[in-house]
Every structure is written in structure tokens, then in C-alpha cells.
Specification:
It is a single chain. By secondary structure, the chain is an all-alpha fold. It contains eleven helices and no strands.
């Protein structure tokens, strides 16, 4: 029980420190804003470690963070192989294809009332389809390798991005468009200089939503058939072999990659939409 008591004591100390930092005059400083979630995360890990060791929880049920870290270090070759297969080949390629096609389709919809009336309702219908239903079908169409995972990702990211881009292109006001017409601006000049910049907050909303969907889609699709590598394959076989520490290591990699992917897109958004009120600080 010593480990449990120590973990609870560490948790309470971290809690008190976070409360003190949050109420301090430095609470708006960048270092404090970074330190608070880091301290919280360390407290969660310490509590997890203490409870697992102190209560002697079986590693098959819940391995300790130190066991997961040890597996992470000793299995870097396996984790890297799975990262390449799932993230770089499946998720990233599907994300780029899906978002690119959605963007082009949104421009086509903007120029066609027929597509606006016909495609968007169908898009809402397709977006509601369960991934566990369409993934096996796409795997049977495109094979067991990364191409089928990319196809699943394309289906998952296409409509969220499409809907956001279409909505963003409607954001300009009639007076702004009239002003462009008085300058004899063409459709594409109006699009590039007025409507696309105004649509950027919506475009990036769709791209950020798609980052998490892409990773989820690629991992889930591997449950329905894949080569002997990939995060989804490793998680499903790891559970079967009771290698739960490796499963948690894969989950940790997925969480880190998902967070980094979202952060990169958010950082690009900040650079592109610096003029938007949502990006103003204070």
C-alpha cells in the first residue's frame, strides 16, 4: 500500500501546485500555461503507476506506465514499421487525397446549383455510414495493403472537409461581391482574392476535424485485413496474445501522432488566418 499512498500524495501535491499556478500572477505566461497540463499529465501517470503496483493489478488487465515505457523503448523497430504503414502510407495519403478531392468538389459545387442540390444531401447520407460497415467493403475492393486504408480515410475525411469548404465559400457578403464586380473582377479573381481568404477559417475547421478522422479510419480499417504490420493489426493481435503493454505502446504512438498532426494543421491555420478575430490574443 506504500505505492498507493505515495501516488495519492503526489497527486494531491501536483493538484495543489496546479491550483497555485492557475491563481498566480504568472498564470498567463507561456511557461505556466505549458507547465500546468504537463504537471497534470505527470500526476495521472504517477497515480496510475502507484495504483497498479500497490494493488498488484495484473499486467494483462492494466500494465504500469513503466512497463509500457520499457516496451516502447525495446520495440521501436516494430513501432516505426507500424507508424510507416498506418500513418505515412494509409492515413496521410488518404488525408491528402480526400481533402484535395473535397476542395475541388466544393469549387465545382459552388459553380453548379445542380450539384449543390444533389450532392450535399447524398454527402450527409454517406457521412452517416458506419466505418465498421464500409471498411470491409473497401478492403475487399482495394486489397489488404495500405491502398484500402487510404480509401477508407478518403471516405471519412471527404465530406467533413467538403461541407466546411462549401459553407466557407458562402461567407462573403453581397456588398463585398458587388464591389469585386465593379472592379470587373472575374470569377476566379473574386474566388482567389475575396472568397477563399474568407473561407479559410471554415477550411481549417474541416482540415482539423479530418486529422483525427484520418488516423481513426486507418487504424480501424486494419482490423478487417492488413499485412503483418500496422497499428490496427498490432493492437488486434496484441490483445489476442495478451501483449497488452505493446498495445498500450501503439496507443501512445497513435495519441502522439494524432496530437502532433492536429497541432501542425492548427499552427498552419494560425499563420494563414492571422487576420481573423479568433486568432487574436487578449
Amino acid at each position: 500500500m506504500t505505492a498507493v499512498v505515495a501516488a495519492v500524495a503526489f497527486w494531491l501535491a501536483a493538484w495543489g501546485l496546479n491550483v497555485a499556478l492557475a491563481r498566480s500572477r504568472w498564470r498567463k505566461a507561456r511557461a505556466v500555461r505549458i507547465a500546468v497540463p504537463v504537471i497534470f499529465g505527470l500526476a495521472v501517470l504517477a497515480l496510475w503507476q502507484g495504483l497498479v503496483r500497490g494493488l498488484e493489478v495484473s499486467p494483462v488487465i492494466l500494465p504500469a506506465p513503466t512497463d509500457i515505457a520499457r516496451t516502447f523503448v525495446t520495440s521501436t523497430d516494430v513501432l516505426w514499421q507500424d507508424f510507416v504503414q498506418t500513418v505515412l502510407k494509409g492515413a496521410l495519403s488518404g488525408y491528402l487525397i480526400g481533402c484535395g478531392v473535397a476542395f475541388v468538389t466544393a469549387i465545382a459545387i459552388d459553380r453548379s446549383a445542380f450539384l449543390t442540390a444533389g450532392l450535399l444531401p447524398i454527402g450527409n447520407f454517406v457521412a452517416a455510414l458506419p466505418i465498421v460497415g464500409i471498411a470491409p467493403i473497401l478492403v475487399s475492393w482495394f486489397g489488404f495493403d495500405w491502398q484500402s486504408k487510404a480509401a477508407v480515410v478518403v471516405v471519412m475525411v471527404f465530406f467533413p472537409v467538403l461541407v466546411n469548404v462549401v459553407q466557407g465559400l458562402k461567407e462573403t457578403e453581397a456588398m463585398q461581391r458587388d464591389l469585386m464586380r465593379t472592379y470587373a473582377a472575374s470569377y476566379w479573381q473574386t474566388m482567389v482574392k475575396l472568397r477563399l481568404p474568407a473561407a479559410m477559417p471554415f477550411v481549417f475547421n474541416g482540415l482539423k476535424i479530418a486529422t483525427t478522422l484520418a488516423l481513426i479510419g486507418a487504424i480501424v480499417a486494419e482490423y478487417f485485413g492488413s499485412p503483418i504490420r500496422g497499428m490496427g493489426f498490432r493492437i488486434s493481435t496484441g490483445v489476442g496474445r495478451l501483449a497488452i503493454d505493446l498495445v498500450w505502446a501503439e496507443i501512445a504512438v497513435a495519441a502522439l501522432v494524432g496530437t502532433a498532426f492536429y497541432g501542425i494543421v492548427a499552427m498552419i491555420e494560425k499563420l494563414v488566418t492571422f487576420w481573423h478575430p479568433s486568432q487574436r490574443v487578449g
